[in-house]
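TL;DR need structure tokens for one chain.
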Amino acid sequence: MQQTRDDRPLGELLADLARETATLARQEVQLAKTEMAHKASQIGRDVGFLAVGGAVAYAGFLAILAAVIIVLATNGLSWWLSALLVGLVVAGVGYVLVQKGLTALKQQDLAPRETIESLKEDTAWAKEQIT
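>> reply
TL;DR here they are.
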């Protein structure tokens, strides 16, 4: 690697370094904002799937619930026992859906990995400039 000599005064070199460092810091902040917005968007999508899945399951089961309760009650079970059994099954299905949504949310990595790597590179670059 060939080094070139810069004949500018030390004050000017330090001023340039300060300007470049400030610009770099602003760019890093912008990168972090962009990365976090992207991650927030992914989390929002997963929460949306969770909510829509819950609503669809609820709506679908409401129609089925009445029919199943009626069938059980007309086949010899009391109405309260029919409703209890059907309610337990529906609660189990709802639990599975909620667990699936929570698992997807827990797998999201919220750390701005690209920004962290870039900051490490910037630190190394700044150290090179000073030495």
